[in-house]
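Title: [Solved] F-box domain-containing protein 3D structure

Original question kept below for reference.
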Amino acid sequence: QTLRNEDALATESGSENRPLSSTVRKLWIGPVTLNGSKGDFLTFKPRSTPWSGDLIRWPLTMTHQILMQCTSLQSLALITLNQNDWSFIESAIPASLKSLWMGPAHGAIVLKNFRRNPRISHFTSIDTFMRDDEVVDIVVSPHTRVFRRIFTSGAGQFARDQLACLTRATGLREMRL
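Solution (posted by the thread starter after getting help):
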């Protein structure tokens, strides 16, 4: 609501006004607990996942609108985004983004599909199977410096089997499993 309200968008910056959304640098879009009270805009219940429980998740259209407004965003965590919804969000990832955290079970990550061409230097994937071509795409990007794969259970063996995908990486400084 704040991003849509023209009066609320102006913040003083010297003698010029700039949109409030342009000041957002770090953003978490994921489950929130409401301590027994429900907000009008947080009524969407996700399918049951190990991460969901009684948590509420942001609607896809609202997530897209927020990302389109946040033009100076540098770090983004997209948690519990349905893997089938990722293709609707990737076009809204701002060009300013440098760090992306996603999981569990996010959709396929293909950097050339990011229409706004962010230069992501840090990518973290949580509890997600990734195809070999996705891993290669991320590690051969000239911008990728850190690539992390986090697993909350022993299911990370297939990620260790993909270490051969790193042979073409030139700018990658760190890979963590």
